[in-house]
Every structure is written in structure tokens, then in C-alpha cells.
Input
Amino acid sequence: MKRKINYFIVLISIFTIFLAACNGDSDASSESGEASNYPSRNIEVLVGHGAGGGTDLFARAVVNELEDILDVNINVVNQEGGAGVVALQNAYNAPSDGYTLIADAAFSITTAAGTNAYGLDDFTPIARFQNDTYALWVNAEDFSSIEEFIEAVEENPGQVTVGGTGSLGMDEMTVFMLEQAADMDLNFVPMEGAGEMHAGVLGGHLDAMVDEFGPTKSLADDGSIVPLVVFSEERIDEFPDVPTTVELGWDLTDGNERAFYIKSDTDPEIIEILENAMKEAYESEDYKRYEEDNYLHLRDGWLNSADFEERTEELIEKYQVIMDELQQ
Amino acid sequence: MLEYLWIGILNVVTEPMNLLMLFLSIVIGYIGGAIPGLSGTMLIVILLPVTYSFEPAAAFILLTGIYSVTALSGAFGSILLRTPGTPEAIFTTYDGYPMAQQGYAGRALGITIISAVIGSLFGVFCLITLTPLLANVALSFSSPEYFALAFMGLTVVASLSGKDILKGLIGVLFGLMIATVGMDALTGTLRYTFNYTPLTSGIELIPVITGLFALSEFIKRSTESHNLGNAIKVVKTKLFEREIFKKIRGTIAGTSVIGMFIGILPGVGATTAAMLAYSETVRWSKKEEKDTFGKGNPKGIAASEAASNSAGIGTLVPLLSLGIPGGATAAILIGAFILHGMQPGPMLFNSDPILMYTIFAGLLISNILMLFLSTPFIKIFEKIIKVPYSVLGPLIVVLCLIGTYTLRNSFFDVIIMVIFGIIGYLLERFKFPLATIILGVVLGPIAESQFRRSVQMSDGDFSIFFTRPISLTLIVVSIIMLFLPIIMKYIRDRKVNKVDNSA
Output
């Protein structure tokens, strides 16, 4: 009897896992992706970044809404590697039937750096959702204003350390652009991840870091770290005393722009269906709440396919120049 | 605080949904972790969307419960199939698998569970009482200290390489070489990628481990004869033997502390914790006992399990107190908090202490329950040993292939796994200590990138390693321990000589 119960427990648990793992892979009809009945089967969203990171959370928050709007199952698949390039490559190898989308934050950067072999000829943006805002953060005990910081940099040129995550990514470019715009000589230290970077600033091992407002929220609310300057045109309601780069005369408002992409040779009607659905998702209450919870609403994020394609083109050109200087 | 904990416990016990989640987390964690390739990280990612509609308390009891249970159940595969279910369970393979092959699978599983549960409970105890203090300790560590820690880890190569130190050194260097493949962490330069995109993100630890240990074992066993008479005779043992426990209790205590300490550091992780705990246990063991490691020494299992479980809980310390994840799974837990509209960190402790203590209580109770619920799982799992290898082997290969693929949904990882399977088979034939390769693969990236990061921080000044007290201490201690055996031998030889001369 006892033995039977044992087997029963194990059986139930195997069953539970399979249920969870399958999570809606039930209708795998393989009709061709004609626009008239699109979407007729599961859609896959490839995320080129790790689970739990900013881009992954963005993809999951949008997918949550899209599933209801399109009335279809959408699976988020993390394919980490090469700052999103691996996912782009896999998407490129998939058919252009509209059932493989990519969520990416670094498309213009990897294209500019040359690590991404596919440009706007191969992929078309469907919509941009977020235009995230950077700030320069310091330990509250070290500096209280950007003037103090600038003074410290002038006294110790090349000695003041500024952390960012990864190398040759948006963080490093931002610090580089900051150095140029503000004529500062900083020492950029590429950190393994946001966690190590935050610990570095909290523990006094890094003088400053560049990061967005979402990941730093808890530490900022607690008062242990403070923003010295916001990389945007307008001040932020939550930090009314913090000056912006534009106020200081620095032409630097770039941030991570999170968007969905699809293969360029997909049926334009399908792209339009997706674009409209995404617009609806962008305006949904749940998505707005997620944005506000994570300080992603500071700048208007929405750009439709055509507008963001144009912007991406400009960004790639701009970043190419910077990358050339960085890689020297 | 105690008051909050009491409320937390009541919350878990009286709310049927919470209790159900607690039970589910154990069951899912036990099975999921035991399946090679289905790691705790992946289970949490899979279950995350399911928890959207839950109350936060129920959701986090489930997720943190799975997190804690898989830290243990990953060892089941290590012991029974030589196929670690999670990367940190790799060090349980060294002694767990030989012990199971000798017929004592039940004993190995019993040691695993008791060590893991004690390690975890110690971790939860520290989490509840010492979090602010430990968070400060974690913050005093930066790149130079991480480098020193990795350096210390690399110096144990001698104790892991058995009799042939030269082969051990070659193994470490091979591991370090594997670790250099991919995009350089500091300058973004591509190394050994041959313009092949999948290589830019480097070679992952899991395909290497799965290939070197699981697949190579399959190749080896395939070349052996398979008549059923050779099947392993299962020796009946009690799950928790007093004799064994007496032997390993010191190891469990020591390695739980090591695990906790490594776990709270955001730059390392449970795999490194298990590795350091294992090798330190070997290093500090009695001379005559040293040879029994890797052949089924219960202390080896206890060290690896107590440390990796206590480290697993340790990573929650910076996560909950500072919002800083101490490892990959912790990073996903942060994502889970965010998707539930919360931001883990100092504010959450103030704004929602009841939720925090409910999570703590959940961890506490689930670990105690784990101990009691483990019996049916052990009883069934230990029978796996009796399945003829001609049936079990192909099944393991299928699991390895699926597990490696699902890691990043990448076929490239599968190829890497197969290549390392062949490498592992060949190296074992030449009696190569595979453990040293893992040492290089795990510690290589930490040592290299943290060394260079330190030098970058100090703007090219190497004294940064010797002017910081923690880093200096760690480096000095590791150098002393590296040369101590040689010095001791020299002194002993001289004494012998003197005696000889005077005689």
C-alpha cells in the first residue's frame, strides 16, 4: 500500500512537470502563414538576452498582452549570446511566415559593431516599445551633485571609475559619449552584470555607474545611491532636482530602445496585423502598469514600424562612427 | 523579527494555497532537478508565467521552494547516472557515483539529503538572522577579492589531481583554455571564434560537464560486456545511518559555512562554492584518507551538497537585502518579483516584511518537509541502478541531448556536448583527472576577467591585490597552502637526515 502511494506521488509529479513544460503546445497545425487567417498557430518570440533581464522582461510583459489580443499562444524562447546576435541568426534561418519574432534592445549597436551580419535589409522593426533613460549614479556618500563629480574628474583625470555592464555595448558607448560631450576623462570598467556593478558602487569599489531607473529603483528609493544627471531632454518627476544632460549643454540622450523585429520578406499584411496588435498591447492597462512600476514611462516609447526603421537607420550610422573610435 | 517569522509560518501553514504550493515545489523540484538538463533555473522560467495569476506569497513560495529543492535534487542524477541534473551537483558525482556503483546508492542519496537539508537550513537561519551583516560582508568584496578567491581555488589543483600532478596541471590549463573562447569580457575582442557566431558567446559549462561526465561514461560502458549477471547488486542500507553521520558531521558544518560565504558574493555562485568546499575538504583531510576521495568517500558527497545548498540560500541574501542577484537563478527570481510588480531590495523589507518572512518560513518548512518526503523518491530512484545499462544508457543519452539543447535552445551546445563526450572518454582512458578541467572552466573566467577588471579599476596599478586586506589575506593563504606540503616534506626529510647523521 505504502509503495503504491510512493509511485503515485512520483507519477503525479512527473505529470505536473509535463503539464507545466508543455504550457500550451497543443495546437501545432502547420498551415502556411497566409495573412487572412494569421495567426493560426503558436508564435515564437526569440529573446537574444538572458531570462530575467530587461529585454526578457519587456518581451514577457508584451507577450502577456499579445496572447489575448491575437488569441494565440506565444512562446518566449531565450537564446542568449553575442548581445542578441545568436537569436537574430536563428530567426534568419527560420521561414518568413510571421511566426518567428525577435525582441531585441541592441540591434543598432550590434549592427554598427559589425557582430550582427544582418541589417535592415534582412530584418524590419515591427514596433518600438521602450526608449529607456540612462542616468549617472553614484554612492550617496561620495557625491551630491554633478558639479562635485566634474570637479573630482578634473582633479584626477582618467582615475574616476565608471562601471557599465559588458563591453562594446550600450553602456560603454554611453560612457564614451559622455566623455566626449562633457569633455571628461573617465575610466570605464566593464562589469559582468548589473548585480556586480551595483555591489561595486554600494561597496565603494566603483566611483560611479551608468544604469537605467528600473533596475536601480529599490536602491534609489532607499537613498543609498543617487542619480547625478539624467540622460534626457526633460527632468524626471520622481527626481525633480536632478539636472539633465541637455540642461548642462551635453548632447547625449541615447538609451536602450527595446523593439520587436521580423524578417523583412514577411508578408506586409502580417507585419501590419502584428503592428496593430502591438499598439493595442502598448496601450493596455497592464502594460502601462508594468512600465510605471519599472520607470519605463519616463519617455514615450512607442514608434511604429516605419518611424522606427528610419530611426534605426540613423542610429546605426551614428553608432558606427563611435564604434570605430572605440575599437581602435 | 521573531514575531514576523511566526506570522510567516502561520501564513504558510494556514493558507491552503500556500501549503499546496509548498508541497508542489518539493515534488516538482525533486523530479525536475533529477532530470539532467532541466535545471532549477529552467523550471522557474517555465513556471513563471503560471504564477502570474497567483498571490505573491503563493508564487514566491513555489518559486523559491523549487529553487531550494533543485539545489538538492540535481545530485540524484550525479549519483545514479553520473549525469548531474544541475551544474553545482557535478562535485557530488566524484564520490556519489562510485558509491552507487558499489551498490550503496541508497546510502549516497541519504547522505546527499541530510547534508543538503542541513546546509539549506543553516543558510535559511543565516538569511533570517544575519542578512544585513552578511550583505555588508558581500559589499566589501570586489574584483581583486574575487580574483584572489579564484586564485585560491586554482591552487587546489594538486589535491584534485590525485597522484599525477602533471596531468592535473594539463587538465586545469585545458579548462582555462576552453574558458577563453568567445567574446572577451573586457574589450569585446573575439577569441578563438573563427567567425562562427555561436562561438562568440563562449562554451557553456553545462554542455562541457554533461559531455565529459555523462556521455563519456556512456561511451565507456558501451564498450563493456553487457550480460545481466554483471548487474550491480543493491546493498540494502538505512537511509540515515548514525555511523556515517558521525563521520560527516564535521564536514557538513565546515562546508555549510564555506557555502554560505561564497553564496552571498554576487560575482561567484553555487558551483564555485561546491568546488571550493570539495577541494578544501580534500586538502584538509588526513593523509591516509586523501586517496579515498573520488572513490566513494561519504565526506566528498557531504561537502559538495552542504556547500551548494547553503550557497543557494546564500545568493538570496544580496537579492533580498540589496536587490543584487548572486547567481543566474537569483537573477530570474528578480525578474519574477518585477513581473509581480515588486522590486526586491532594501525597500521591500520595509514595505512588505510579511511577504519576506512568509518566503523565509516557506524555505524553512520546505526544507524540513524535504527530509520526510524524500523517502519515496529515494526508494524509487535507487532502483534505477538495477536497470540494465543497455536500457538505461540510451535513455541517459536522450536526456543529455534534450537537456543540453533546452539550455539555450541551441543545437551548437549539443555538438559541444558530444565533442566533450568523446574527449572525456579518451582522457579517462589515460587516467586523466577530469575534475581539474572543470576547475579551469569554472574558475578561469572569474580569475581572468576579475584580474583584468581590478587592474582596470586601479588604472594599471598591480598593487591593488596587495593593498586590500581581504585580497592580500586570501592570496597569502593560498600561496602558503600551495607550498606547505613541499616545505613540510623538506623539513621532515631534514629531520630524518639528522637522525641518520647522528646515528
